[in-house]
Amino acid sequence: MARADKQAAVAEIAESFSESAGAVLTEYRGLTVKELQDLRRSLGANANYAVVKNTLAKLAAKEAGIEGFDELLTGPTAIAFIKGDVVEAAKGLRDFAKANPTLVIKGGVLDGALLDAKEIAKLADLESREVLLGKLAGAMLASLSQAVYLLNAPLAQAARLAGALEAKAQEDPSILAGGAGTPVAAEEAPAAAEAPADEAPAEEAAPEEPAAEAASDEGDTAEA
């Protein structure tokens, strides 16, 4: 490889390291061209799977500020440069390795920290970003629903109380006019109204006066 081409290749790999959220180193010995194509398709937009030369990858890693990669760069190497969900990419590589044991995950780097094969496997066991966001959204909606309920509960109680008072006022308007004491006065009013009715017979006795006059007339007659 010409020097210019070598420098361009190193710069390209270093840029991939710098622009990626993480990278997973694999040994693809024994995989067919079709299997490599299937692996790239399974990773989709989450990662760019590229076959690299170890010498160039070492130079690119150092240029990108990544240390400790040298011992991982042995044998036929391909690197999954992860630009999407790191967990999803790790799951894709793990699942493909289970179905195709010739793919060996050697380790990787995440946010500048080196990871070994076991740590990559643990990363693949985590829940994906979409699942975590879904759970977070569910928890937030639940909290929001509780907050709305707590805010609306006093208003609902006040509305029910107002409705009860309105219904009671329609039955007895004096509740709104005079408060608690008014209904008692209203109850005494009929008793006062009934009193004249009881005294009416006493007034009807007045017509008996002519009888007295008649007696007087009889006296006058007797004297005559």
Overview of this structure, please?
A 5-stranded antiparallel beta sheet has the order 2-3-1-4-5, sandwiched between helices. Helix 4 (86-99) packs across helix 5. It folds into 2 domains: 3-126, Ribosomal protein L10, N-terminal RNA-binding domain (Alpha-Beta Plaits); 132-191. Helices cover 66% and strands 13% of the residues. The chain has 224 residues and is an alpha+beta fold. The model is unreliable at 180-224 (pLDDT under 50). It is elongated, with a radius of gyration of 50 Å.
How would you sum up this structure in a few lines?
By secondary structure, this protein is α+β, with helices and mostly antiparallel strands.
Question: What do we call the CATH homologous superfamily of the largest domain?
Answer: Ribosomal protein L10, N-terminal RNA-binding domain
Supply the CATH architecture of the largest domain.
2-Layer Sandwich
The DSSP helix count reads 9
**How many strands appear in the DSSP assignment?**
5
Distance between the termini: 174 Å
What is the residue-averaged pLDDT? 73
Main sheet, how many strands, which sense, barrel? Answer: 5 strands, antiparallel
Order of helices and strands: HEHEHEHEEHHHHH
Strand order of the largest sheet: 2-3-1-4-5
- The radius of gyration over CA amounts to 50 Å
Strand content: 5-15%
Named CATH topology of the largest domain: Alpha-Beta Plaits
